[in-house]
Amino acid sequence: MSFTALREGLQYVWTHPLLLMMMLLDFAQNVFGNGRALLPVYAADILHVGPTGYGILSAANSLGSIGTAGVMSALPNIRRAGIGVLIGVLIAGGSWALFAYSELFWLSIGLMFTQGVGNTISTVLRGTILQLNIPDAVRGRVSSVNAVFTNGGPQLGQFRAGAVGQWLGPELAVLTGGLAVIGVVGLISALVPMVRRFEIPSAAEESGVGVVS
Question: 66-111: per-residue pLDDT in tens?
Fold first, then answer.
């Protein structure tokens, strides 16, 4: 991937708000709504469940993701993909915000499961929207820009969680991150209505791109 190609991809994304908002949602979810770096602290010092509990919390998140992916693969075409992305990111951010001060192990497991559900909903639908709206002529360049968000976000998110956790404590680090994700969803929904209005065309429609109603 050359810097020239990356620059061209950035220029294209910047002039297409729908693509830009999808990548911004991905970045916000990964940077702010990513408290997994603090799970060992929760397992040891807050929930007092030790290494076994940490493994269960991590597994619950993965089970939520895998189960949701299986369900979505069996569903017919989900037309309201735009609102689906927003709902998925909202579920993920809300789950982290509720998880922040949970001292009940069973509730924490459920919230980690739910976080995996929301993350997978948003990831699948966001990827679908991107693929439907990137022309073949610039697909590689725009995909490279998306890869920067997708690959860089989680690492920055874990750094953010650790740094804020050291500063404010793990609970506030997770809570503020979850609330930030919810805030981003609210702002994008209000200021960029094309995101929530985006629909995937049915098989009977001739257009190869999404419909904004």
Answer: 999 999 888 877 888 999 999 999 999 999 999 999 999 999 999 9
The C-alpha atoms of residue 53 and residue 43 are separated, in whole angstroms, by 6
Q: What is the pTM of this model?
A: 0.87
Cα–Cα distance measured from residue 206 to residue 13, given in angstroms and rounded to the nearest whole number: 25
Under a CB-based contact definition with an 8 Å cutoff, are residues 132 and 209 in contact? yes
At 158, list the tokens: 């874990």
What number of CA atoms fall less than 13 Å from residue 19's CA on the CB side?
24
Pair type for strands 198-199 and 211-212: antiparallel
Helices 3-14 + 139-168 axis angle, to 10: 80
Q: Residue 203 has what DSSP assignment?
A: T
Count of beta carbons in the 10 Å neighbourhood of residue 96: 30
C-alpha 180/C-alpha 178 separation (Å) is 5
The DSSP 8-state label assigned to residue 201 in this structure reads: P
